[in-house]
Amino acid sequence: MKRKLGVFLLVVLVAAVIGTPAMGQTGKTRISVGGNGVGGVYYIYAGALSTIINEKVPNAQATVEVCPGSSVEHVTRMQINDIQIGPAMNDVVFQAVKGVNRFNKPHEKVRTLFAMYPAELQGASLEKAGLTTPQSLVGKRVSIGNPGTGTSVMTAAVFEALGIDLKSMKIQNLNWNEGAQAIRNDSLDVQFGAIAAPAPFIMDLSATHKVALVNFSDEELAKIQAKYEYYAPLTIKAGTYPEITVDVKTPGIWNSMLATADLSDDLAYQITKAVFENIPALQKVYKGADWATPENTVKFAVAPLHPGAVKFYKEKGLTIPSRLMPN
Fold first, then answer.
1. 79 in Cβ contact with 34 (< 8 Å)
2. Which of 74, 90, 188, 277 is the S-S candidate for 86 at Cβ 3.0 to 4.6 Å?
3. Can you say how many angstroms the Cα of residue 225 is from the centroid of all Cα atoms in its chain?
4. pLDDT over 70, % of the chain
């Protein structure tokens, strides 16, 4: 009888553990925040966000998790609640929500907390190479980042829109820092990065070499946006990098901080509220963090808002477009 009672209690205990959210030793809900690779903007942004959560949201304990697959990995793992929060480029978000390109079915659990900042697609090379137009890259050694990253997705889409086959280049899949070093070593011609300027890897390269960026014409930018409405033309101002004395035009993309729909409405509300009450803390690690506003979120978000975020934005008096209302 005692043995049967012991087995019964064990079954009840296991069921209870499986049926409850992951809890830390302090009784707080554990939240994994996707952070791409160490050293990138996503990683430091995710770290600052985790600090805000840990300091301002009493019932949550956040940690950053390295996700080499960046945007694609973040949304894929949020769909199955393997991580709870993570940043992603809006083109990847669009594809995930629709279930197209790299996604074989709609990722219906992807939700937006807030829009982060716009990023430019930047192709960096040595000035002496003269690689300043998309067509000039044909036949060259070009890195588009790790497979599955937002950079690789955006770069491939941009060249497709321009009718330039990636097979016409010698494609490599290096991360930004590896690419900068490969350019120094003359084993690579161009490294692309979908990242807000000034990009650390380009600043690092420009410390030792004269750098040039790929410059897109107005006609090329119009063609890109006609095919992909979320790639808006942006301008990198002269002087953003040493030795670059002209404005550089390039496709841009907004980044969003996302959450799984499995995150509780209360936690999503508290986290969204804490972020907007602590933007200066984010700016300490990324100066462009002030792009994150409720208004920009409502204007540029792609995935539906998390119900907890909806509550916060309505408290701010904003009207939520029907396209952003969760099901």
1. no
2. 74
3. 20
4. 92
- Domains of the chain, CATH where assigned: 24-116+255-324 (3.40.190.10), 119-253 (3.40.190.10)
Cα separation of 85 and 295, whole Å?
21
Q: Indicate if the pLDDT at residue 39 is higher than 80.
A: no
Whether the per-residue pLDDT at 285 is higher than 50: the answer is: yes
The pTM for the full model equals 0.75
Phi-psi region of 307 (alpha: psi -120 to 50; beta: other; left: phi over 0): alpha
Find the mean pLDDT for residues 147-154: 85
Distance CA 83, CA 260 (A): 8
Q: How confident is the model at residue 276 (pLDDT cuts 50, 70, 90)?
A: very high
Q: If we measure between CA atoms, which residue out of 170, 196, 167, 183 comes closest to residue 124? A: 183
The pLDDT tens digits for 152-163 are 989 999 999 999
- Summarize the chain as % helix, strand, coil (round to 5): 45, 20, 35
Q: What are phi and psi of 95, to 5 degrees?
A: -65, -40
DSSP label at 304? P
Residues 6 or more apart whose Cβ sits within 8 Å of residue 41 = 195, 196, 200, 286
Q: What dihedral angle (degrees, nearest 10) is formed by the CA atoms of 306, 115, 68, 207? A: -170
| pLDDT band at 102; cut points 50, 70, 90 | confident
Region at 36 (left for phi over 0; alpha for psi -120 to 50; beta for the rest): left
Q: Which of 325, 260, 318, 319 has the alpha carbon at shortest distance from 32? A: 260
